[in-house]
Write a structure and sequence with these properties.
The protein is of the alpha/beta class. The chain folds into two domains: 12-121, Transcription Regulator spoIIAA (2-Layer Sandwich), CATH 3.30.750; 126-285 and 302-352, Alpha-Beta Complex (2-enoyl-CoA Hydratase, Chain A, domain 1), CATH 3.90.226. The chain has helices spanning 12-21, 44-58, 68-79, 85-97, 109-116, 151-170, 188-195, 259-267, 328-352, and strands at 105-107, 133-135, 138-142, 175-179, 202-209, 214-220, 223-226, 229-232, 247-252, 273-277, 286-291, 297-307, 312-313, 321-322. Strands 1, 5, 6, 7, 8, 11, 12 and 13 form an eight-stranded antiparallel β-sheet that branches. α2 packs antiparallel against α3, α2 runs parallel beside α4 and α3 packs antiparallel against α4. Mean pLDDT is 85; it is low at 1-16, 18-37 and 119-124.
Length: 353
């Protein structure tokens, strides 16, 4: 199936968004895919109507559809082209495209099965972080996209990232660079847990549903909570929270998407933080998966994102200092290092007076 979306293209960010919310288990495996063949589908209108009902009930972009009756007719023309499953997939993709929210997408049965069994092994080769480096003496912690929803893997990833943060803070350089430039998304909770020493306690992110209900992601006592539910318990290893005077410089790019953007937003509104690089991908809504009766998945943008101080995000997260062009991330890291160094020198000068 070919995805040709104007606003909800199937991409690294899109697949990462789905994996944030699809809790799956399994091991690396190759297997026969039941759904690779395009089987004849009887009564495709049943699935089209089911998808429309889900969208109307939950999707932020439902309000963008001017005429649901006309959209249904157009989708059924696509679904009944030959009556094959690929036609139904194209019809569901067409429906999702018209939500025009930049984040929702449809995943066919065969595509979801490939994700569920992790046969696309390249998704799993990237660690949540990389070895610590220094940019002109300022430690840089890289936070990569992390896909797994497995509890054990998530905890191990957060411990690995936390270890890098602990090393950076132990260097006592007055500040840290957090590089999100290649973070296309995934499971944001191990990312937040690993970075917790750099985040002040309390509300990190807020989500507003289509109905206006607000829920918060909160740092509390070393745990990360969503509302009243503990999503990740405190790590066994104790940690010292970074001084409120410590500077945190974040590097962004157009490759920073979905959960990578959520991590960036978690730092928005915090003191002594500055952002460098390019505007992000713009997938700053919360996605929820809905499995259709025939086995396909709708991943729908269902909530808007707010930061800790009540600023709502629509579209890309904007850096404080924009850096574009060739090697923009390299330049952004250099500027981030210069800012941390200058801020630290200024603080030392003020302290000596």
């Amino acid at each position: 199936m070919t995805f040709n979306r104007k606003s909800s293209r199937f991409s690294y960010v899109s697949l990462a968004c789905l994996l944030v919310v699809v809790g799956f288990a399994g091991t690396f495996a190759f297997r026969y895919y039941r759904y690779q063949t395009s089987a004849y589908i009887q009564n495709p209108e049943v699935t089209v109507d089911e998808a429309i009902a889900v969208m109307q009930a939950h999707a932020l972009g439902a309000r963008n559809v001017a005429d649901w009756g006309l959209l249904r007719e157009e989708s059924l023309v696509i679904a009944n082209k030959k009556g094959n499953e690929i036609d139904l997939d194209n019809a569901l993709g067409y429906l999702t495209e018209h939500l025009e929210d930049g984040h929702s997408f449809y995943l066919s049965r065969s595509q979801y099965e490939a994700v569920e069994t992790r046969t696309a092994s390249w998704w799993w080769n990237t660690s949540i972080t990389s070895p610590l480096i220094e940019v002109a003496t300022v430690p840089l912690v890289r936070v990569n996209g992390f896909i797994s929803m497995d509890t054990v893997e998530s905890k191990m990833a957060s411990q690995l990232l936390r270890a890098q943060v602990d090393i950076a803070l132990a260097m006592d350089r007055c500040g840290v660079i957090v590089d999100l430039s290649e973070n296309g998304g995934g499971n944001m909770y191990p990312m937040l847990m690993g970075l917790l020493p750099l985040l002040s306690e309390g509300t990190l992110i807020q989500f507003e549903s289509a109905s206006g209900q607000m829920n918060s992601v909160v740092s509390e006592g070393g745990a990360i909570k969503y509302g009243n539910a503990v999503i990740m318990a405190p790590l066994v290893t104790p940690y010292a929270r970074a001084s409120q005077k410590s500077r945190v410089a974040l590097v962004l790019s157009t490759g920073t998407g979905s959960s990578g953007e959520m991590v960036a937003i978690a730092f928005k509104g915090q003191k002594n933080v500055r952002f460098f690089g390019e505007p992000t991908a713009g997938a700053t809504t919360g996605n929820v998966p809905y499995r259709l009766s025939h086995g396909g998945f709708l991943a729908l943008a269902t909530s808007r994102t707010w930061d800790r101080v009540g600023e709502k995000y629509v579209g890309p997260v904007q850096p404080d200092e924009v850096v574009k062009g060739m090697r923009s991330s390299v330049k952004a890291r250099q500027l981030a290092s210069q800012w941390v160094t200058a801020e630290c020198k200024q603080a030392e000068t003020a302290k000596s007076l």
